[in-house]
Amino acid sequence: MGAGHAHVLYREASSPVHRLAPEVKIAAMVLFTVAVVATPREALWAFAGYAVLVAVVAVLARVGLRWLLLRSMIELPFVLFAFALPFLGAGERVSVAGLSLSVDGLYGGWNIVAKGTLGVLASLLLAATTTTRDLILGLDRLRCPEIVTQIATFMLRYLDVLVGEARRMRVARVSRGDDPRFLWQLRGFAAGVGALFLRAFERGERVYLAMLSRGYSGRMPAVWQGAGAATAGQWLAAATVPLVAVCIAATAVVLT
Amino acid sequence: MHISNGIINGPVAGIFAALALAALTVCVLRGRRDLDDRLAPMAGLVAAFIFAVQMLNFPIFTAGVSGHLLGGALAALLVGPWVGALCVAVVLVVQALVFGDGGVAMLGLNVTNMALLGTAVAYLLIAGLLRVLPRTPAGLGVTAFVSALLSVVVAAQGFVLQYWLGGTTDLGGNITGLAATMAGAHLLIGIGEGLITATTVVTVAKVRPDLVYALRALKPATPAPVPAVGGVR
Q: Where along the sequence do coiled-coil regions lie (chain B) (predicted)?
């Protein structure tokens, strides 16, 4: 639990992207994604442009292609839907290799794959270069209400508590003669889910009281607030990516 | 039920983002009053719990969304509608920013369905059912089960509405088919969600009834019982 509170996706490294202040990265990522989504789907070249941008940032952040591809598997349900669309879609049809496919469906499928993938890659790059603490600090500096950052802080902290308690309860079950395999573990787990919740809560409450007695007031420590906030130079440097993306999107809208 | 980038068009996503932002602002203002020393760690744990159960998801092939537990009813029961909606919203924001689960540009849609619609429907049902049903663990369990089940189904229909308004691919007037697919899949999810919500809440209510927001807010008549172990709180 005490191990640094960095999440599983964080890639420890020292790169220009890692060194950027978190609020800058969050803002850039959100703007980039909005630009991608606003691009008309027929402008195929625009998506190539976005892919180049993502690749440049990935190289700068020293994030490997293999890692990115493995982690973007989360998108799989949507990709499957995208492949179903050419068959489900309505309207004009074309024949490709003996299959009758809907033109609208083909574009729709492409739209989901391209925009979804670019969005996931942008998130992964943010996650790979930003620790949990910095992420919440960034949201705080972007004027996110205190109650929201507070819930987010506790959520990320208690995830470890929850996982730890679940592991302890499993060990306890197994040591009392339960021999769960594969899916049958679920039954034992489901029966104990209420107990898990209570145990995690009582542990979490102690964590909270310990924080309170050490001067926690619902806000991030003041030292964090000031130190490492983004400079104008950082904002400018990070703005290049969304700005280029917005230019590509604007051109694509004008051309189509 | 996360919507990925590109499934719903930009303008509709924008409108729902504005709607979600306005509603969340109300939640922040009302939630501040609720959040005390007892609720703060509970809100964090509820969010962590929802985050964990949402990790288990499977694709619904013909709808373009993933199916998983939502947790709106659990949040509404344990931390109330305002903080509860914020908890689910925080889960969705972190998932979108860090894991790329649900597009960032689609956050408004996802927050509207799962955080706002799910929690609101659940809390209205809870408020109604708790008044009618007997004040026993069974009554609470039934309340939790029914509200969780229906909130999941209604939240799923929120996606159908959004797809009807701004789906990027015309399914050829197949919107009723989509509605049926979503309702069917989410009825099954809702049963699972109902069982988990009911077990969790009933267990918590038996040991620490003071932790269940719905019981505090909606049943002020019963005097707070003193827990046998752990001293007076």
A: none
A74 closest CB neighbour out of B101, B171, B208: B101
What is the domain range of residue A167? 145-226
From the list B47, B106, B207, the residue facing A151 with the nearest CB is: B47
Say whether B103 and A84 touch across the interface (CB within 8 A).
no
What's the number of domains chain A is made of?
2
- Least CB-CB distance to B199: which of A118, A148, A194? A194
Q: pLDDT (tens digit, 0 to 9) for every residue of chain B, 233 residues total?
A: 788 887 888 888 899 999 999 999 999 999 888 888 778 888 999 999 898 888 777 666 566 677 788 888 999 999 999 999 999 999 999 888 887 777 888 899 999 999 999 999 999 999 999 888 888 888 899 999 999 999 999 998 988 888 888 777 766 666 787 888 888 888 988 888 898 899 889 988 888 888 888 888 765 555 555 555 554 44
Provide long-range contacts, Cβ within 8 A and 24+ apart, for A162-165: A162/A196, A162/A200, A162/B45, A162/B48, A162/B49, A162/B52, A163/B52, A164/A1, A165/A196, A165/A199, A165/A200, A165/A203
In a domain, A107, yes or no: yes
B10-216 CATH fold? Arp2/3 complex 21 kDa subunit ARPC3 (1.10.1760)
Indicate whether this model's pTM tops 0.90. Answer: no
- A115 and B35 within 8 Å at the Cβ level: the answer is no
Any B CB within 8 A of A138 CB: no
